Amino acid sequence: xxxxxxxxxDFAVPTLLAMVEAGFCPDWVxxxxxxxxxxxxxxxxxxxxxxxRREGLAILQPERVREASFMDKIANPRPDVAVVVAxxxxxxxxxxxxxxxxxxxxxxxxxxxxxxxxxxQGAIAHGDPKTGVSTMLMERGLxxxxxxxxxxxxxxEDETSAELAPRLAVLGATTLVETLRRLAKGDxxxxxxxxxxxxxxxxxxxxxxxxxxxxxxxxxxxHWRAFTPWPGISTDLAGRRVKILAARPAGSGEGAEPGSxxxxxxxxxxxxxxxxxxxxxEHLQAAGKKALSAVQFVNGERLQGGExxxxxxEILSGAAAK
Length: 322
Description:
Rossmann fold; Methionyl-tRNA Fmet Formyltransferase, Chain A, domain 2; about 325 residues
């Protein structure tokens, strides 16, 4: 099979390497352009490009895949299949139609759940006990194409998105290789998705991490797991943004207003959450300050009792008013 590979971040690297190992070596590895990174603005290759260089593979890094010069480059000879893993650009119809067997996307969810840019975070934030990967034939809709293969994976009770993503990347690699093998044999049928069951996990923003203290402590913890390391979860205290770096649900009690600071418990700051539940915070970081333990934070802020973290709806409505 003549293959193309489209991918950019670390998540895509295991699939590229698995393709090479299985004998589906791509004619071209296509990735986003290398960009300046850090204070010194050092030109840095995307992870897929770095991996492709190590493997001695041919690389293309177009600014836009719709450019005629790029399309001419990859069209002759016509590829049998294009594999797409977290590439980062929209495919127009001429590119979707180019490969003889289509463009096969590796998506990190059990479609039709969590279509969109943040499926891993979506599954964890919703407290799902399992997730998985899907290979699908791409079409113009958002992750709406027919599914080829799926594989499931259990989510650990305390697992973060940063921990889950590498496991899903490996699962996606093995699932993609099996997909290519069966496509080559001609014994794999695509199954249309049930669009009525679709959910969406759109690209994350900083506002997604603002805490709603009316949620249960477990739901807030699940959002911390989902949004670590970015955008993290945060709240406001007396008009200043505070990032919650480490926390755990800790049973129920008190019955105070959600967001109320209940004082230190075994060196953790207890906060009232919805449903009578309690979140115990271990480390925090106020905007522009260094990270602190809960004890250091309470002492530094001279908290006397009665203080309350601002709720999400109050923060966002205030931002809207401004």
